[in-house]
Amino acid sequence: MMDVFRLGVLFSTSGDYAAIGSDCRDGAALAIAELQAEIGRDFAIAPIFGDPAGSGARYIDLARRMVAEDGCRHIIGTVTSQARKDVIPVMEKHDGQLWYVCPYEGFEANGNVIYTGACPNQHLIPLFAHLLPTQGRRVYLAGANYVWGWEMNRLAREIVTEAGGEIVGERCLPIGDTDIGRLVAEVEARRPDFVLSNMLGPSNHAFLRAMRDLGRRDPRFTPERCPVVSCDLTECELPDIGLGVADGQLATAAYFDSLDTPENRALKARVAARFGTERRVSSYFATSYATVRLCVEAAVRCGSDDPAHVRAALTDHTMPSALGPLRIDDATNHTGLPFHLGRIAGDGFEVLRSQPCIAADPYLVARRPLLSSSHALKPQLRIVS
């Protein structure tokens, strides 16, 4: 039995997407503190924290240090897909395990990565299955100018086209770019039924503020008539946007703070005790928290930090969590996750619709027959009372 488990925690807590990285880090830190108290003195968790500040070079350097110098065989971390792809070669070279907690664009299943964030069949496809028949099929796509924005927009184009809809416009902005005037002018001119925003951080915040102003000038662009929908916007960014500014806009997530389940009530009580009662829990926080527990508990069960042994310890094991039961599929290294559609209201989300745990399908093997049938365009979600 090992005495010390060294765990890298690699999130950008400064820079353009600091709010997301900080929530991921805080979720990991809470889980580490709780696990250390539960396991006792015979087993020490030694976290190594790193802040790459959104820099790809820093992600690579810090990951290399963690595995090659600090002895971390497991890293919980990276926020963007570009950072994940930058770090994967480091993990492959040193036979380490990256645990990726953020929603992403799919089309990846790497043996050195455990994916606990949602992939498109768990966020984008159920979102469009609801929106296209209810909101309309004229869609504008806005994205961040990197792999997440490119791939999410590509999938959206395929889904909308196969459904007989129309992409009325598309624009990608560099991460952090807040010059959104031309984008908003295009939305106003082309009058979509809704906008899919795959932007990140300040770009998305500026866009949502501008859409609020546009809706005040022209009621055709209020959230009720032309919502902005997202697969990566959560509670942790609402204060940066301005509370109330984005009210009525929509987002999907595997978790919302407002979910009323015993597991979530228990998690929120622990969060309140550590961070205060005003702290809202995002899917980033909840997933990072649950992922640390998955990782460390698997290491304790097998008595080793060897990634192969830890992966084997995940097989046939289901862990309860605020996101629902989590189980890693050893064929894809992904976990099944629920789908929730939320509407922004103040500092949180009102859950409108939910779908129970969806098995991850990162390469969308089952997507084409789903979308080619008329059945796919009917909402298959239950109303949450």
TrEMBL record:
Pfam families: Peripla_BP_5. InterPro entries: Leu_Ile_Val-bd, Peripla_BP_I. One of its GO terms (biological process) is amino acid transport. Gene3D superfamilies: 3.40.50.2300. It comes from the Bacteria. PANTHER family: ALIPHATIC AMIDASE EXPRESSION-REGULATING PROTEIN, PTHR47628. This is Transporter substrate-binding protein.
